[in-house]
Structures are given as C-alpha cells and as structure tokens.
Amino acid sequence: MNRGFLWLGSMKEMNWLQKDISISNEHKEFLKKVKIRKASILIARGFILVAFFALWELMAALKLIDSFITSQPSRIIDTLASLYREGDLFYHTGVTCFETVIGFLLGTVTGTVIAVVLWWSEFLSKVLEPYLVVLNSLPKIALGPIFIVWIGAGPSSIIAIALTISLIVTILEVLNGFISVDQEKIKLVRTFGASRTQVLMKVVLPSSYPVIINALKVNVGLSWVGVIVGEFLVSKAGLGYLIVYGGQVFQLDLVMTSVLILSIAAALMYQGVVYLEKALVKSGKHTAV
Amino acid sequence: MYTGEAYFCSGTQKSPNFSFTVYPTKLYTVLYIKTITQQVRRIKGTGLMSRAVKLAGLGTEDGILGAIVEVHNLGMKYHSLNGEVTALENISLTVEEGEFVSIVGPSGCGKSTLLSLIAGLLHPTEGSVIVGGRQVTGAAHQVGYMLQKDYLFEWRTIFENVILGLEITRTLNNAARDRVLGLLETYGLLEFKDKYPNQLSGGMRQRAALIRTLAVDPQILLLDEAFSALDYQTRLAVAEDIYGIIKRENKTAILVTHDIAESISMADRVVVMTKRPGTIKRFYSISLTCDRKTPINCREAPEFRYYFNKIWRDLDIHV
User: Fold this and answer.
1) Do B165 and A192 touch (CB under 8 A)?
2) What is the pTM of this model?
3) What is the ipTM of this complex?
C-alpha cells in the first residue's frame, strides 16, 4: 500500500487499511511461526519430564540400576497410594506446607516492618548496619539447635528457623527498595506538607510494592529450606521428617516420594505468588517501576 | 496616633484610594490593616502599591501589603565534610499578587534552593520568607510546587493522582472533589480520570500535574524548571498551555529556569541571578508589544531580542 495514500484517507479508511495490513499473508506467517515456537517449547519441556521418568523406570526394570538405592517411578506411585490409604499423604504435606506458609508470611511481614523502622530512623539503621551484615552472612541453620532448646522441639522451632532464614534478606532487600525511592517523588508530597507517616504510606510503600513482591518470591524458596532443615532436626511429622525417616530405614521409595511431593508443593506455592503478583499488576495498580 | 492618606497614581489622575489610621496599640494596627488589605488586593499587580505602603511606614512586622511573597536578606549555606558552600547570599525579592516572575541564572546558582526555601522545604541560614503575610516555617499548602517531571504516581489513576494533595492535607471532601472534577473537565482531562499516567501523553501528564497542584488551591505556584524534561516542541506547547491555565486561574507564579527565552516569554518580571554564591544581579520588568500575551506571541514581540541580549550578557556565560 502506498504510504502517501494514508494522507488522503479518512479515519475510517485508515482503520480499514490497518486491518488490511494486520491480516496480510506475511503477518499470518509471522503469527504462525510464533505459535509453532511456543508449542515446540512446551513439547520439549514435556518430553524431558516423560523421558526422565520413562528412562528411570526402564533402567530399573532392566536391572541396569539398583532400584533399592534409586527407587523407581512405579514404586513411587505405590508408595503414594499407600501413603494416601493410610491418610499420611495429606497429613505430612499439610504440616510442612503450613509451617512454610507461616514461616514465609512471618518473615516477609516482620522483615518489612523492621525495614520500615530502619527507614524511619537513619541513626538506628546506621548503628545496626554491621550487625545485619554479619547476620546475613551467618548460615541461619546454625541457630536451629538454639531454637530447639529455647522454644522446644516442635512446629514452633521449625517456623522460627524458617523465619530467621528469610528475615534478614527481607530487611535488607526491602530497606534497599525504600531508600531507592525517587527523592523527587518524596519532595512532591512534602510540598503538600506531608508528614513522615504520609510519605511512607503515600509514596515509599506503594512504590516499593514490586520489591516486596520480589522478596516474597525469594522467601518462598528460603522458607522451604528452613522448614525442611527444621524437620530434619526435630519433627515427628512433615515431608522433612519422612525424608529423614526414609533415609534412616533405607526406604528410598519414601525419600523419593517425599522429594517429589515437595517439589510439586514448592512449585505450586511459587506459582501462587506469581499469580498474586499478576493479579496486582492486572488491576493496573502496580506496574513495574 | 498617626492619621494619613495614601495616594496612588493612575494615569494623570491623582485620587485618594483609602485613608488609614495607625493606632499606637498593635492590636488595632493589625485589625485596621486587615481591612485595608482587602482594598489593596483590589489594586492588582502594581509594584507601586507595596512601595507606597512601605513608604507610608505601613509595613507590618510580618510583611508588606499587596505583596504575596517577600524574601528578606535570604542566605543559605550547605555543610558537607568537604566544607561549607554558600548557595545563596543576601537575596531580597517581592512578588505581587497575580504577578508572574521568572528567575534565570546559570546552573548551580541556587535557583532551586530559593524555591525550596519559599516552599518551606528548607530552612534558611539567614533572613526570612513571608508568604501571604505569614512567615514560612515549614511546608504548607498555600504554596504549590511543580517539579521538573510530572511525577504522577503510576499506581494511581489520574483522578487519584490529582487528589493527592487533598488527601495529604486532609481536605478531601465532596466540595473539593467537585472542584477537582471541574478542573479536570475545564482542562480536557475528565475522560481520562480513570486512566493510569502511562496511558497519557507528556503534555497531558504535565497538565494533570498542574491540576494536582491547583487542587489544594495554593496562593502561589512555584515552577521548578517545570518544562525542562520535555523535548523542545512539546515544551513550547506545554509552556503555552500551563501559562494559559495559570492566568485563567488567576494565580501568582514564580518560574525558575535556565532558558532565557522561556523566562522572557512568560514573565512580567525577570530576576537574573549570579553564579555561586547566588545573588540577585538585576531585575527586568518585561513589557512586550503583542496582541494577546501568551508565551508564543511574546516570542515574536520586537522587544524580545533586546531583553534576550541584555539577560544573556548579564549571565556572562563562558565555555
């Protein structure tokens, strides 16, 4: 189509021309290519999953690998079924998920609150800076036994471990987000006479929303680590407990099954956070800054 | 007791506009001056007014009548580990109600610091600022501030953005809401009120930013390089647009800019500042012959070049 022709056309004709362009053969071809590419990525992903389990099953069946040590997909399914029959499946999964959710919510909320306090008082944040740095580099799992002695062997200790693991990272991340808020935006609300609380509520918190969501994503993973380690140390229930127990009695079927459930649960929880983020973005409220 | 009359020149006619009495008691003086103020307000945009009042010895402790902004011997120093920097020194400036004043100066001359001081965002090391008869001690919504960029919050709709100031000053009621909706309608943004800032053009965003400032009904507008983030063409159009709105809403404005042409085309008076430490070098009362005073028309006035060259020389810029 001649470009100059567009000048002569009325708006209606222009729309019609654009429509005409949008269904041109080249564009059709392009769209088709994009579709094919998308589909082939999905197929390749699925193929890896299926191939992995098929190969595993096959090699175990052909006695190429020792299924006593490596377990095998069919035995995992059997274990799942028996766990389900005895009512253990949802019980253990539920316990672990509960501890993780509580741990990561507490970690994110407490971390954000502490970040607010440190943002509020620059003096305090400067004073505490070296302590935060040391605590951040300390492997929090080392504190596990201390929590067990203080709080007692039980879910509370496990949640405490999960919380400490995500807490310091959250504080540092969120505080960093707060500090990097555009100073001009703060100046803008200050010209209206905003108090420090208003600066926090109207500017700092809302513009740090993406940072907080990001912290949430990181914390999901960290909390799983905290909870599983906690369960290794103390518990009588949960997927971590099943893994340790299975390992001690050389029941690799149980270990592999638990790991499988764990990865599915972790993936689902992560997707949950991603979904939450998307829902917030979709409502138009929080586009990436 | 002192009784007297102030005379004002209008053309060749000499007429007593009002008479006043100053009682020895301070309370009386203040009360009486308040009634005079109302009369004075009617006589607009005359530097004559405040000067006459000042001559008559009628300056109150807080300020001169007729002037909406008064800056007295203002000085500002910044401290850092590397030493002390004097940003502003001995700045005195009066802005009349309804006046449009531009401040030009080389970069780093403390123009923006001056605006921040007037807005009460900073505290001066020396001197004082009086806005609307009251000494400025902190940020107050009688002063509306426009920044380089629009800084509309991307998580708020246009409507939520323009009521930001009302929310902060806790003055958001139905009347205020209606007023804001009225402003949006007058300036062609009503249909965009539920859109987010990234769905608007640069000019519309700047207009929304101005409405956000006007929503709290400030006595005076401070424009801090308000157009400098825009490309040249948009900048001319937005300056024209914003100027029109300011005049229509009858607001007093102080514009800080490094663009000489912009300062002449918009202002009634141009203040030229020197390099650091920033002091006032010269005042120019701008009178241009053009049909309708708008920034773009003003640029075509024959006197434009004259002012431009004068100010250019004053700025004394070397590369």
Assistant:
1) yes
2) 0.73
3) 0.71
